Amino acid sequence: MREGGMENIAHTTERLLQLLKEHFGYTSFRHNQQAIIENTMAGKDSMVLMPTGGGKSICYQIPALALDGLTVVVSPLIALMKDQVDALRQNGIEAAFLNSTLSNYEQQDILERLPQQNKIALKSNLKLLYISPERLLGERNFLSYLKEKVKVALFAIDEAHCISSWGHDFRPEYLLLGNLKQHFPTIPVIALTATADVPTRNDIIQKLHFTNYATFENSFNRPNISYFIKPRKNYFDDLVNYLNTHESDAGIIYCLSRNGTETLAEKLQQHGINALAYHAGFEPQEREKRQEQFLKDEVRIMVATIAFGMGINKSNVRFVIHTDLPKNMEGYYQETGRAGRDGLPGEAILYYSGGDVLKMTKIVQVEGNEEQSKLMVKKLKQMADYCELRTCRRKYLLNYFNEKAGNYCGSCDVCLTDQVKQDMTIAAQKALSAVSRLQERFGINYVIDFLRGSSTTRPMHQSIKTYGAGKEYSKDQWRSFLKEMIQLGYLKQADGEYPVLQLTDDSWPILKGEVQVMLTTVTHEKAPLPEVLEAKKIAQPVEKDLFEALKTLRKQIAVSENVPPYIIFSDATLTELASYLPITRSDIAKINGFGEVKLEKYGEPFLEMVQDYCIQHQLYTRIQHKQAKRKR
């Protein structure tokens, strides 16, 4: 490459980093954000897979600032649009959304601010416009208006998995986005999603008619999130205890039904917990009001159906709890990813019962579409397998998305328990014999009933020799044994709506007494490995009283500006302030989140609070430790 070319690349990189610092307060890109941005700047299409909280929006917001013209962001939810636009405006970026919540006058004002073709750009021209696929491609034919009148620089499609029937959240209206390349063949398109397996991502690329494109895949690992599965039976007392020990934290609790959200929220309120229900059955105004209360930290706990949360950017959610089994791993991953978006520790807790699988099997099937039903049942089974693991949950989760992982993560309930294994060869032989004598035609629940000699077993089976041979173990113990035997390959479950138990090649040596079977019989908590604890440490101690005072200051500013507190600054920024203790204007500019716009707007009150705290407690700045860490 010629020297001039290298200089041009260096100049472009310098400009992108300048925009990042000026508007977002960061000095470097994360993961492969820079490569994605440069691919877009080169006029190529991009297929981007990045975990929730990984910084997807930066991948199109920085090009939007650098390119001449309008970036159109296709977004599925009105709430997401408002959230993103509020955050962009706080960072000094001209952005707006077009949807039904705006008056005709407001919509006309936005149209007048769109950069027009063959006209000199006005300083107040919009750089980003958020719009739903229905509005973009619907009856009003907004796409034609953009084509004829507006200088379009980029299309960004958020939640791109919605375009694929192989995805977990297919939306027919997204299919129309396949027309974009027909109308704008030279305009780059960036498709972004946090959840897409290989068939889904290939389907996205095909349906959007990408030809000159690159695929960017980030690690799906969210190391700051810890994963826990707990028994669903009598879960409420455990839930209340958990919420009371996290009384200053915000969280989301997902329930399957609308009625379930209202009932649980009411019970939590009776226990003095600040919780509200949310589901699609509420009037739009009421949904918007409740969501805003949660975003503004006026409500601590949102008890919701999955109608709540897609694209919600609230960065200080510390935990996500499921009281019912999610339909698939993609949905579970996306929902749990709403915890810890700021990079600080988060927890994902799922209350599980084996009976959930049967109930959910009927729900996930698509009437009149056998192929789609089979896919949904298969995904549900994978979700159930995850819940019944005796091996690292993070490994299973990452392997599901075709990512390799070690056998120990140190931050899931399996890795945090000692598993005592005993010789259970006789029990295993009883189980395998039962499956064989039942001609491999029945599922786990029936085999357990057969082994325990239940009266619900068919009369024709009660005369079989091994009927009732396993009465010494409870239903839960047998379920645990059978699931572990499946994981070990001693048994398998058939695919499809009826996952019957079947023998494998490894079954026969056990039945013949040639192989010893060791199964888990006791578990108890253990301490994480030292290296795991070390990785989770914050570089500097956090002054907790200062952190709480900074949260109060942030809330006061947010109320005065009528925006959610996390849009002013994330908890991660406040944590850095309370850790590194900047005491000069140049010091505070080194804190992530303090771009030029926010430094000018909010630098003084936050700086004064840190200065006063340091004087009161005779503390010195630790900003030099942050600089040393950055150099390393």
Automatic annotation (TrEMBL):
Q: Which PROSITE patterns did the record assign? A: HELICASE_ATP_BIND_1, HELICASE_CTER, HRDC
Give the domain of life: Bacteria
Q: Indicate the segments forming the Helicase C-terminal domain, all copies.
A: 235-384
Task: Cite the InterPro entries for this sequence.
Answer: DEAD/DEAH_box_helicase_dom, DNA_helicase_ATP-dep_RecQ, DNA_helicase_ATP-dep_RecQ_bac, Helicase_ATP-bd, Helicase_C-like, HRDC-like_sf, HRDC_dom, HRDC_dom_sf
GO CC list: bacterial nucleoid; cytoplasm; replisome
Its required cofactor(s), as named, are: Zn(2+); Mg(2+)
Q: Which GO terms describe its molecular function?
A: 3'-5' DNA helicase activity; ATP binding; DNA binding; four-way junction helicase activity; hydrolase activity; metal ion binding
Domain named Helicase ATP-binding: residues = 37-214
Judged by the first EC level, this protein's enzyme class is: isomerase
Its UniProt entry gives the catalysed reaction(s) as: Couples ATP hydrolysis with the unwinding of duplex DNA by translocating in the 3'-5' direction
The UniProt record lists the HRDC domain at: 540-620
Enzyme Commission number(s) of this protein: 5.6.2.4
Entry annotated with the keyword ATP-binding: yes
- Provide the GO biological process annotations: DNA recombination; DNA repair; DNA replication; SOS response
Which keywords are on file for this protein?
A: ATP-binding, DNA damage, DNA recombination, DNA repair, DNA-binding, Helicase, Hydrolase, Isomerase, Metal-binding, Nucleotide-binding, Zinc
Does this UniProt record's set of keywords contain Isomerase?
A: yes
What family is it from? Belongs to the helicase family. RecQ subfamily.
Q: What is this protein called?
A: DNA helicase RecQ
What is the protein's species of origin?
Answer: Filimonas zeae
